[in-house]
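Working notes for the structural subgroup meeting. M.R. asked for a predicted model of this chain before we commit to crystallization trials. I am recording the input and output together here so anyone reviewing the notebook later can reproduce the run.

Input as submitted:
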Amino acid sequence: MSGKYKIRDQSRLYFVTFAVIEWIDVFTRQEYRDLLLDSLRYCQKEKGLEIYAWCIMSNHIHLIVGKEKEAKIEEIVRDFKKFTSVKICRAI
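Returned structure, recorded in token form:
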């Protein structure tokens, strides 16, 4: 599977899923879920991410997203994943 999202129409909504490496149950701890949610809120406020639905599981997350600003969805997702992974690794 490709590591890049293929967003063909920036005006549509997309279902995206991110999994923790080796499916480790990271999000069983409230501290790590909070870091994830803080990152999502930041992307909403600063990057124009629109979140229509979300579900945090113990080792992955599901989102239905769109965007409101000029940034591309795949760029927002890339930045979200990078920032969040660094924050969680530091917290661990």
